[in-house]
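Appendix B, record 7
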Amino acid sequence: MTYQEAEAFLFEQLPMFQRVGGPAYKKDLHNTIALLESVGNPHLKGKYIHVAGTNGKGSTTSFLASILKEAGYKTGLYTSPHLISFTERMRIDGDPISQDEVIKYVEKFKPIIEELRPSFFELTTVMAFDYFAKEEVDIAVIEVGMGGRLDCTNVIQPEVSIITQIGLDHQQFLGNTLEEITREKAGIVKENTPIITSLDENELKLIIKDVANSKSATFFDSKELFKISIREESVPNWKMTAENLKSSEILDFESGLSASYQIQNLKSVFTAVQILKEKGYSITNNHIKDGLKNVIENSGIKGRWQRIPNEKSNAKIIADTGHNIPAFEYIVKMLENEAFEQLHFVFATVNDKKLDGVLELLPKNAIYYFTQANIPRALDANHLQEMASKYGLNGNSFPTVLEAFENAQKNASDKDLIFVGGSTFAVAEIPNL
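Structure tokens (predicted):
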């Protein structure tokens, strides 16, 4: 079996939520537990940090994995979805799993796949736990796929758990209100295990705090522990300051992920590091500074307010994988802070999102390039154009992301800005990511 055949098997034979949506979602942990038992329950052998949330969990996991790597710990990182290659989903010290390892896992799991018919995410989660156990990582940072309570990753006993921002997303599975979604995400809270949140909304924090109290888990509100401020919006890394509100200690640092929405994530990161230090982990201020600065190199994270090289002109290109209302509230504010003459907006989305709230937020004075990613779940570009026009968003539709992107490059002057977003999978298809 070649790697291409192994990857094709994973994508085509197993229902994958990112590609097909609802049919891939499983409402219990039965398959995950059966798969784990078939390989000796590797998830019981490791130490973990568990991160849930609607937005911010990818950045938070990447920051923490980078800091732990800089501190000398052999660190696993499990994230989803991938942008370019399946191997991005599981890394050790920043290095993705090898193609040969993926082939071995597919061949190893084929008999039980035929018996259980697991989802793509169920299988890849078990693969990650087995890989991290086999490679004897010191600690692994695990990103929840969706929700929390019934997510495949929710079989671990972590050192600390984190819940980042919560917004309306995947309502058909997690609930129609923020309170219902919060309860699902609070399902990652474990007995006697610290739980951190960076939420702004007091009523949602109280839900998590109540769950924590019921499980004798210590609750940490990161906003009460750390203040993060921006000193200079320099390129490529913003210069920032963290203040410990209890000890008044100040730490100046650079963030390799530079966007105002990272402030909320960084509060949780600093809180988690403090808890890990109290548990005996040896992490210095220099490890923290190096980890935050080198987060992209150390974790492989992409698509977070990422500046893309432009080979056609001097127009700025920025890509961001944010794809729901809370994400676009930040994205629109960030765009307003950028200097440009004309905004060219390459926009795509999926067919099971409630789009009205997002379309209401988008800038009316941009030129839009409506398109669709190469996945079955993509919303048709012509239909997207029709919907967007009702909100005063004007532009043309293009059958592929590359065609939309190239037209934006052709039309943009040197003082313009090209933004690519709306869909993780659209961002994945642009060159030089």
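Remarks on this record: The longest helix spans residues 99-116. The chain has two domains: 3-299, 306-428.
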